[in-house]
Design brief:
single chain, 62 residues, mainly alpha
Amino acid sequence: MGRMRENPRYNVISMRISDEERDRLQKVMELTHKSVSDLMREAMELIASRTDQTDQADQKAA
C-alpha cells in the first residue's frame, strides 16, 4: 500500500486540445520542467488572482 499524502488529490479533469495547443504545452513543460498538472494549477491560480483583482477594482468603483 502507498504512503498517505498530506493533501491527496482524487479529482481528475480532462480536456481536449488541438495538436498545436499540445505542441505549445509540451514546449512549456520542457522549458519549465513542470508537469501538465502543475501548469494547470498555476494557470488556475493566475486566473483566480486576476479575477480577485477585477472584483476588488469593481467594488472600489461602485
